[in-house]
Amino acid sequence: MAKLINEFRRAWWGVSQPALPLAIGFAIACLGLSTFARWLLAQVRPDVFFTPYFPAVVLATMFAGYRIGILTAIAAGAFGVTVNFGETTADSARIVLLVIYWGVCGVAIWGVEHYRAIAADQRDISRRLIEEEEYRKLLVDELQHRLKNKTSTIHAVIHQVLAEQPQVWDAIDRRIRALAATDDLIARVDGTGCDIRDLLRSELEPYGHVRFNLNGDALFLPSRLAISLALMFHELATNASKYGAFASARGFLQVSWTVSNERLSITWDETEGPPVENIGKPGFGTKLLNSALRSFDGKTEISFFRSGVHCIMQCRIPAS
Prior knowledge:
With 320 residues, the chain is an alpha+beta fold.
């Protein structure tokens, strides 16, 4: 019984074609129910011969395909002509109604079969997309594992080389750990999202807790937006460590954010950094900052003041 129910469910959802006995049994059941409905209707209108059978034809076609639908339509027409409830008898008018009924059934069967084919194509596409997504996740997990191993190897090699230079090692160690922390965070938020404060702390804490201040309410970021912002924060923090606030002993970073009408505005403000003298041509980092939020109907405005970078990021917050 469980096997039969499972086969019926799979056929009804269009996952597989039902066995011929099941398809015929379903069509007979639909015809029986339609005949019963016709008998009930005959208590009021005995001259309704074919209309109650129309749902049976549609359901049989939806369940088992156009062949069973055609057989159901033929059988329903025969029932409508030969089976009488009351004193009505078959006449020429009923034959005309039969022809009209079969014509309407033909159109309905074609329409149902057409959408069955579309649904089957969509299921195949969905199945392939699911398989590709699973394969992508497998590759990403493997790449993340290899990236961790490479980062650990680089970390160990540099530590051995700089074993007698602890001050240099401490500065490099923080940078390597920041890179590793960002990679781990991006891996974690993929598909889940995270809070913006956790995202910023993961990137900025390696430079020292007293070097930055975060100002804003708790805000959960959907995964796609969180990944884009993680890449942008990493690029800004890297630039700050090379040329901006984190490259100066007195440098300080203020990051604040607000939300209004489902739009997020983030301000990245560096102060007390080294004077910005010359601004070169836009590199990969600048192009990343300018383009990362376009898919979220956003934009980035970067200003280079003498005390450091002032960056405003604005975007729409997508639904979780």
